[in-house]
Design a protein that fits this description.
globular; alpha+beta; Lipocalin; 1 helix; 12 strands; about 190 residues; 10-stranded antiparallel barrel
Length: about 190
């Protein structure tokens, strides 16, 4: 009788474990699938008035899906009036979280071999993404030496032509910079 009890318990445990595993895979697949409409290469440019001087800014973003989540690579090139060119490039991997449509950055590997976000308390940016409807947003939070913050927000909204980029940088509640432009799908 005891053997039969443990046998049924073992059978039930295997069924429960299988159901939970399948649910977990379905949730992860659904979260990763959210990125599908955004996948592609996009580029655009705009003219900015920076302290009275006109600057041209070229921007591009590449969004790709992989087995664990997705990667966003973006570049911004500023053409200064004096002829100088300044380029900044970023590449960040994102993985699904337990919360629907929210993705954690995977910017370094911990001692257990898992990809994890950076630590904002040591000066690194804390980066995450979310998908709300037709908008992919990437947030980057920096904590400065005095405990203040800068939050950068990149909203990339799907359009027929590509993506509308709305960027905003906020430091301690004050808007430092706002940029809006269309990035056309290549």
């Amino acid at each position: 009788m005891v053997e039969r009890y443990f046998s049924k318990m073992h059978e039930g445990g295997l069924i429960l474990m299988t159901v939970l595993l399948m649910m977990g895979l379905a949730i992860q697949s659904a979260s990763a699938a959210d990125i599908d409409p955004f996948v592609g290469d996009y580029s655009g440019s705009l003219d900015l008035n920076n302290s009275g001087a006109k600057e041209k800014r070229d921007m591009s973003v590449q969004i790709s899906k992989d087995k664990d989540g997705f990667t966003v690579i973006w570049e911004s090139t500023v053409h200064k009036p004096n002829g100088r060119i300044k380029t900044k490039s970023y590449s960040i991997d994102f993985v699904p979280t337990d919360r629907a449509h929210i993705f954690s950055s995977a910017m370094k590997t911990n001692v257990f071999g898992h990809a994890v976000p950076l630590d904002p308390m040591v000066g690194d940016p804390y980066v995450w993404a979310r998908i709300t409807g037709d908008t992919l947003t990437v947030f980057s939070l920096h904590v400065d030496e005095e405990g203040g913050y800068e939050l950068q927000q990149y909203n990339r909204t799907l359009t027929e032509e590509g993506l509308n980029l709305d960027y905003q940088s906020i430091r301690n509640g004050k808007i430092l910079k706002s940029i809006s432009t269309l990035l056309r799908k290549n």
